[in-house]
Request: fold
Amino acid sequence: MNYYVTTAIPYVNAKPHIGHALEFVQGDTIARYQRMLGNDVCLLSGGDENAIKNVQAAEAAGKPIQTFIDENTNAFYKLTQELNCLFTVWQKSSDRVHHYPSSQKLWNLCAEQGDIYKSVYEGLYCVGCEAFYTNDELTETGECPEHPGKPLHHIKEENYFFRLSRYQKEIVRRLESNEIRIIPESRKHEIMHFLEKGLTDISISRSNARAKHWGIPVPGDPTQRMYVWFDALNVYQSGIGFGWNDEMYNTWWPADVHVIGKGISKFHAIYWPAFLLSANLPLPKAIFIHGYFTVNGQKMSKTLGNIIDPFDLIARYGVDPLRYYFLREIPAYSDGNFSETRLKELYNADLANELGNLISRTATLAEGLTFEPVTTMNNHTHEPFFTAMNAFRFHEALSYIWSIIKEQNSYINHESPWNKHGQERQKILVPVIQSIQEISKLLEPFFPNTATIIQRQFASPSIVRSGILFPRLR
Ligand SMILES: [Zn+2]
Reply:
């Protein structure tokens, strides 16, 4: 089977922070899990490069837009590599070869259905979100809920509009029936609540003046550029061939899951399905919405100066401990607090003490003994793991794996194999080794490097001791 998973494509007006790192790791873990199940997997991300805020940031940095964008997008790509995330496709939205024509095709398909018309728009615009806001969507102090403190711009101009209102009923139906599954359920309720208020048509273009001549030209009207969300969402299609390689597109589309942050759920669960319905294209099967990182209980923001650099964390703790921390500590369905103290605690307790200890003492005790090759893993035995993974509940899957690790450590303590020799010791260790082999398999989606090291060490028939997996931190 084919499995297509995407992460959101980050705005590249600034360097990546740990929120991006979390999402890349979640996407990669889903992809690796699907590969483990034997599926062919495509994992996509890229750069959201046509936003006005990119242009503004480039101006502030005194650099040509494309240069600025390429530099920043590369930093995001470099982060995925340092995090050991295997992206199949990295689609830039400033790509004129594939992405531009692909997005113009989507536009034309919507226009052919009579869903695009010209009108005057007047409203408040948040450049941070690249979105218009109505007064009832703003905070009590009249600010953008995602960007408190940032000024909203009053804009009045002639734009192209998309008939979003036409798709209200159909989207409600598709969400209610779970044809598009929203995970978790609490986010689905928020979206349904938003839909109850009724949908109004949205502006999907902006004048060249406001776009500063940046972005994808509207087909047939060189005075207007596409609204950035219209083309950004289409990256999920343009990256896999929409408009330029039908065979590839049909292989992967529709997406099995879009992994996104809670701040952009409206665009993914409402706008995106509406564009696709209009264009008569299949809809994504699921949208997994994760929470945000807070730092000491506060939202991460440039204004607060509490942005954590993921490169720095990787350099100091290593990639697997960081992946572990993200997936174990941050509940997949809600916000999680980032704390370096907690990262160290988890590292020492779970990685050094539990996993590291199990591996190193078993290898030491088993060295020189021979073991039968272990039969293939019985998935049925590890049902809690698979149930959790199928629901993107990474922390529960890890918690299950660690329950086995703890069980094996207590078993060793109880049986004291160090007091036994030869066959007697071997008999005690056989179930431990089998268990380690299974654990190393289950760890693959989370811990690709560590899993491979363990698998090499415990490849029957002979077990080899090697260095310490996770040296204790002080
Ligand atoms: Zn905003």
